[in-house]
Amino acid sequence: YMHGHGTMQEIERQQDNAFARITEQVTKRAWQAQSVQVLPTIMHRAFNEMLTGRPGPVHVEVPMDVQVEAAEVSIHPLDKRLPIGVTYPDPSAIEAAVKLLLN
Predict the structure, then answer these.
(1) Cβ(63)–Cβ(30) under 8 Å?
(2) Which pTM was predicted?
(3) Cβ count within 10 A of residue 33
(4) Using alpha carbons only, what angle is made at residue 31 by residues 30 and 35, rounded to the nearest 5 degrees?
(5) How far apart are CA 15 and CA 86, in angstroms?
(6) Where are the domains of the chain?
(7) Which DSSP category does 32 fall into?
(8) What is the number of other CB atoms lying within 10 angstroms of the CB of residue 38?
(9) Contact 94/65 with Cβ under 8 angstroms?
(10) What does the pLDDT look like over 15-64, one tens digit per residue?
(11) What angle do CA 41, 39, 30 make, to 5 degrees?
(12) Calpha distance 20→45 (Å, rounded)
């Protein structure tokens, strides 16, 4: 889609898309790029969000009109990104799984 237009250009829509709202329940955060210049910052923040605390998915929406733009940008180094937070499993869930496997 293009920002300000419906998913299918032939169909008139009364409101903007709700992709970010649709993914709300399964993502940690959502962003929408309004221009190609903000994409490096959005991606930097998205990777930080994905890897901080409990690792999880994020939603980055890039409209078609932004996808076709060109710009000189500097990319943050992605090879140094590692998960920061440590997650611990629920001990009772581990015990339940062990019991299931043993039976």
Answers:
(1) no
(2) 0.62
(3) 19
(4) 165
(5) 40
(6) 19-102
(7) E
(8) 16
(9) no
(10) 666 777 888 899 999 999 999 999 989 998 998 899 888 889 999 999 88
(11) 80
(12) 16
Dig out the tokens for 87 from the structure.
Answer: 């997650």
Reading the block at residue 34, the tokens are 């309004």
The CATH number given to 19-102 is 3.40.50.970
CA–CA gap between residue 11 and residue 64 (Å, rounded): 17
Q: What's the rounded Cα separation, in Å, for the pair 1 and 25? A: 23
The Cα 19–Cα 46 span in angstroms is: 16
Residue pointed to by tokens 């930097």: 44
Length of the chain: 103
Sign of CA dihedral 84, 81, 23, 74: positive
**Long-range contacts, 63-72 (Cβ 8 Å, 24+):** 63/1, 63/2, 63/3, 63/32, 63/33, 64/1, 64/2, 65/2, 65/3, 66/3, 66/33, 66/34, 66/35, 66/36, 66/39, 69/35, 69/36, 70/36, 71/36, 71/37
Residue 84: pLDDT band with limits 50, 70, 90:
low
